[in-house]
Amino acid sequence: MTPPPDPAGSPPALSVRDLRKTYDTKVEALKGVSLDVAQGDFFALLGPNGAGKSTLIGIVSSLVNLSGGEVRVFGTDLASDRAAAMRLIGLVPQEINFNMFEKPLDILVNYAGFYGIPREEALVRAEQELRRAHLWEKARMMSRTLSGGMKRRLMIARAMMTRPRLLILDEPTAGVDIEIRRGMWHTLREINAAGTTIILTTHYLEEAESLCRNLAIIDRGSIVAAGPMKSLLARLDVEGFLLDIDGQLPARLPAIEGATLSAADDHTLDIEMPRAMDLNRVFAVLGEAGIRVRSMRTKSNRLEELFVRMTGDNAADGTAQVAPEPTA
Ligand SMILES: Nc1ncnc2c1ncn2[C@@H]1O[C@H](COP(=O)(O)OP(=O)(O)OP(=O)(O)O)[C@@H](O)[C@H]1O
Ligand SMILES: [Mg+2]
C-alpha cells in the first residue's frame, strides 16, 4: 500500500504557513498561502502572470521579506535561523545572471568560494556538475559563447555547487525551444533522482505534467488547487478534439449523445466528449453523416484545461485541496 510521504518523522523539504506579502505599493501578492513539499518531491508551482509565484520563491530564498506567515526548510524556521535554512536551498532565478566574460569553471568555483567551499573541493564539484550539465567541454570557454540552452544548464550547475537539498527554479525554461527544454528536463530528473527535492515554477504546463509528481496552482495570491498531478488530472473528465475534415462540413452537424459538436471552421470539427466515451462510436456517427475525418488532434493539453478551470473566477473557492501523493 502507499508508504508514508517521508521517512518517519522527517519534516517536509518546504513548509509554508499562511504566507502573506503586501508590497509597498499595497499590492497583496500573497494572501495567506500554505503548502508542504515533501522531501524528494518534484513539485510544480503553476499560475498565470502576476499570481505570486516569484514572490513566494523570493520569500523562501530570502530575497523578499514576508509580511506574515511562516516558512520552514527541512524543519528549520527561516525567521529564526535564516543562514541555516539558506544553506539547504539552491536557487535558479529566471534571468541569466552570471558574468558572460567569465568561464563556466570559474563561475562555479567562485560561486562555491562565496559559500565558503574550499577551492580544491570546489574544483571537484565543478567538474561533476559541468559533466552532469554536459558542459565539461565548455568549462574553459568564455560563457558568452555558450548557447542559450547551455547558459541555462550552467545556471543549474551553479546552483548545485552548494549541494542544496532543495533546488528551486523560477521558470527555468522560459523562452527556450522544446529541444533545449527536454535536455533540461533530463538534467532535472537526474538531480531529483539523486535525492534533491525540486520545486519549479513554469508557464509550460506540459513541463509540469511531464516532470512533477505534485503541484499547486496559485492565482491572485491564493492556492486554488494542490495535490498529486495524477489526482488533479483524473478530475478532468471531458476531452476536446479538433477533427480535420475532408471537404466541407455539412450545415447541419449530426448529434452525438453526450458530446458537443461545433464547427471551428468549414473544415474543422470541434468536439467535446466525456473521457470515457468510445471514439469508435463518434467516428461511426460522423461516417454515417458523410463526414470523413482526415486527422485529429487534442484541443488542449489536459493540464492546460485544468489550469483554466481552477483559475477561473468560479473555481477560486479554495476547495480544490486533495491529499498529497507519497514520494518515493
Ligand atoms: N517588487 C515589487 N514591488 C511591487 N509589486 C510587486 C513587486 N514584485 C511583484 N509585485 C506584484 O506582486 C504580484 C505578484 O507578482 P509575482 O512576480 O510574484 O508573480 P508571478 O506569479 O511570478 O508572475 P509571472 O508569471 O509573470 O512571473 C503582481 O501583482 C506584481 O505586480
Ligand atoms: Mg514570476
From TrEMBL:
Swiss-Prot/TrEMBL keywords: ATP-binding, Nucleotide-binding, Transport
Provide the leader sequence positions: none
Where in the numbering of this chain does the ABC transporter domain appear?
14-245
Reply yes or no: does the keyword ATP-binding apply: yes
Question: Does the entry feature the keyword Transcription, yes or no?
Answer: no
In the record, what terms sit under GO molecular function?
ATP binding; ATP hydrolysis activity
Q: Which InterPro entries match?
A: AAA+_ATPase, ABC_transporter-like_ATP-bd, ABC_transporter-like_CS, ABC_transporter_ATP-binding, P-loop_NTPase
Please give the start and end residues of each transmembrane region: none
Q: What protein am I looking at?
A: ABC transporter ATP-binding protein
Which source organism? Marilutibacter penaei
Organism classification: Bacteria, Pseudomonadati, Pseudomonadota, Gammaproteobacteria, Lysobacterales
